[in-house]
Each structure stands twice: as structure tokens, then as C-alpha cells.
Write a structure and sequence with these properties.
The chain is mostly beta strands and 161 residues long. The chain contains three helices and nine strands.
Amino acid sequence: MAVLDPNEIFFTPFEPKQQNRFVLYVDGFPAYLIKGLGAVTVSQGTVPLNHINVQRFVKGKTTWGPISMTLFDAITPSGAQSVMEWVRLHHESVTGRDGYSDFYKKDMTVNVLGPVGDVVSEWIIKGALITEASFGEYNYDNEGAVEISMTVQPDYCVLNF
């Protein structure tokens, strides 16, 4: 007969991470312009191994998913200008020239904060490039702040702790 472990059946207090406690560091962006950040996602491909009348699988390529970001478009410093400076490292629309990946790929750091401001988790997002940027909407019926939405594609991500 199995004996139940009290730690498994009784409530143990814990402190969950909260969505609004984070700081994102990206070169060229003041941290206070960042309003929101999508989750880091990863998918593992599979490779089928066919043998007679059965199929087994082994791991294929690992793909890190795109990450969405929302920024405030402040007047000074301009959020749109910060995004466009990064976009210009990818492609300069005036001359039509593209940049080297060494220039346009950036590393980002996401620090998840605890209730007293301590860093409880850290993601390092390596080699991110902009895949899409939208510079907000203007509307006479809306008093809200202009927001910039963008999507970045990382090469890979590291969860330090």
C-alpha cells in the first residue's frame, strides 16, 4: 500500500510570477517604452523513421517562434524613430541596400521581477531581427496612446534562471 506524502496533498504557499513585472532590455530602446512582450515559444520538429509496418520518431530541428512586442510611441524619445533605426539596419529604403546580419541582429534580455523588484527569472533572446512592424493608428474618436507593434524572430533563446 502506497503512503501519501503530505507535501503532495496539502497546500504549500507559493508566489506566482506576474505578467506585469518585467523589464526588457534592447539596445536602442529605453526600457520604459516597452509596454508588452509575447511569450518565448519553441517547437521541436520530428523525423519519421519507417521500418516495415511501423513508424518511430526522433527529434528534428528546433525552431524558436516569433516574439511580439508592443511599444509606446513617445514624442521624445520617439518610439517610431527607435524602431525605424533598427529597421534601417535590415534594409535602407532610400538606397535599397540591405544590411549584414551582424548589424541588424540584436540580443534582448527579459528580466522577470519578483514582488520586491528582484530578478527572479532571466531570458536571453539571441539574434533577434524584425520581421514585422506596425507604427500605430490615429483616430479622432480615440484618446488612447499610440502604440507600435512589432514582431521579432530570434535565432535561439536561453533561460538563465
